[in-house]
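Anyone? Bumping this.
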Amino acid sequence: MNFDDTPQEAAFRAEARAWIDANAPKHLHDQLASAGYGQSPLASGDAIAESKAWQKKKQEAGWACLHWPKEYGGRGASPIERVIWQQEEGVYGKLAGMFIIGQGMIAPTLMGFTSEEHKRRYLTPLASGEEVWCQLFSEPVAGSDLAGLRTKAEKDGDHWIINGSKIWTSGAHYSDHGMILTRTDPSVAKHDGLTMFFFDMKSPGVEVRPIKQVNGQSGFNEVFFTDLRIPDHQRLGAVGNGWKVSLTTLMNERMSIGAGMPTGFPELLDFCCEFDTGSGKAVDDPAVRSRLAQFAVRTSGLKFTAYRSISALSRGQIPGPENSIGKLVAGTTLQEIAAFAMDLQGPSGVLSEGDQATARARFQAMLLRSPATRIEGGTDEILRNIIAERVLGLPADMRADRGMPFNQIPTRTR
Amino acid sequence: MDFDFSPDQQQLKDQARRYLDDHCSSTAVRAVLDGPQSHDAALYAGLGQQGFLGAAIPEAYGGSGAGYGELCVIAEELGRAVAPVPFSSSIGLCAELLLRAGTEAQKQRWLPGLADGSVIGCLALAEQPGRVTPASLSSTGSHGRITGTKRPVTDGDIAHIAVVATKDAGGGVSLHIVDLQAAGVQRQVLTSIDPTRSQAQISFTGAEAEPLGAAGAGWALLNAVIDRAAVLMAFEQVGGADKALQTACAYAQERFAFGRPIASLQAIKHMLADMYVSATLARSNAYYGAWALQADAPELAEAAATARVSASQAYQHCARNNIQVHGGMGFTWAYDCHLHYRRANLLALQLGSLSEWEDRLVGHLVAKRHAA
């Protein structure tokens, strides 16, 4: 049991550190370091342009998507090397936020289910950030019950015609390509009639409308399809096999979301050490210390659970559904930490504008963003089902629509 | 980075589990729960003969010198089995105190017996309700004699020797080794929430005592050893939490209600998933403690407090919800749920309570932040 680098790992770390030191956008360092959860990585300037610039620089030098094969724009690095890179990249990693879905979730699906020609065409620009991808799964009537989705895909010669709408599509407004799960056969059981495709977001028949969120930002979108045409060679997996293909994406989603999930604890500890409640520093209050300790052990528990996963990965074991705990624990903790820090601020805790509010409004931003964390990419409840069924081996939920043809499943209107 | 136990340590863990499956079934635990004896003497002797007790005691003093990682995996299995043995008192505290502060003669005299289980040691520290601080002690010691009353002393009625903390005239704390068979020692068994571990009151009236470590240096030594013992206890708690979770999962699958196994009901599944989350966080935090203990790392105090807070909560959470999943059956003496419920709540108060460990943890985190 040790945290030490092997000589090869130490050499890799030194190389990564030297490259970052020579190439990182240091003028952004302070802004990135002070950006809190739910706040833009850059308080001023063009975050998208800066993100793309750093990503391209990394990819050209072989420091993007490290675990991907070299021929697709990666480095062919080991899982441990990828972790070392993340540690060394530090705050500059916040610039990669807009690429996570494409690189972390869609790319594994492309690697598993598309032609060699497509892999060569699409993966390198995905790694370099020159092309951004979004994932179109959820629909207004299909959230946790994703397999209940209704967006139709109908065959027309060597094309498919797509009609319907998607919702909660992160980054659709700046994406170049999309991966979409559709219904190709409504007459079979819901999981059996789905098919996955990818397409150009600039195609005719695609309309993106940003959603104004609780926190006033618009990271998510609605996307509407009117006779969008997708060539059959952009189908991922067999017709009717879309559910299985989507599981690859979703498992990677939970892993990439869960692995590096912040909980807000370091920020809370800093705040409690500096903030004077009127009767001394917050951190000296026994009630505050008790809450701090609770948040601390959840945070370190997640960190060391991730270290155990990384160790398993480096021994060649495949990470499984046990990674679902990352987002489950982090989401609730973020929400509780935000409310707790604001409670300490008293009446001023309600203020949410950067220069008027306490601690640059970071806890207010966290409060208003964290409800989404507990929903996106699998709600807390879905994650508990996954843990119960796939980790603990408990029986699946009994479903009223089991085996029923999709077009006969009861709905509010049917 | 390799954040897991080695294959040899895993093998030892399997070996300990098999031994305990054979020698510490719930029938054996219940014999102590229901019977007059306050520990399983045959089991404890067996653990000594197997070399489990002396895993971290050097060969020169009768142990195997294997190491602390080995001792952690053994502690986990003892916790899983709810073993009615004085492991934490005798090995986690007494042997550690001797190893760190004993003279060569003291080590030679006591460690081989502690390692093979023929000698049981305990720590006589607390005197009154509330947090134990130097100010809370009123026992005194001078010229090789001690006087005072300690209560409760875990395993105090079955121990052969005790490390006793006394307060000096200047307010400092000194430690002594006392042979509990000696004159001037009176013991009384106390009733506790967990009859599978003994509690006693020990009164010393001018009892003969040998100093352990330098006079007045006792408090710092105690804190250092309690940190080490806390890591081992966290593993006991992690083992217990894991077992309580497994028991609850098994029962939920075999118990049918409303025409289906109750494990298919989300209210039950989600409760079990939350138990898994607590148990997993606690295990990962305990591994941090194991790393620090094995490496004798500067982070040991922080790691021990982290492991301890996390493990106390996880075991209490899993033990109480194990009863909840069992419904009314879980509240019967006949089902084993209460063995874990008792042990979880006992262990949460050993070596200092949860709120005390929370306070210690934050103290370490703040100190680290100031140092950075």
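Late reply, but here is one note on the structure posted above: Chain B touches chain A through 48 residues (CB under 8 Å).
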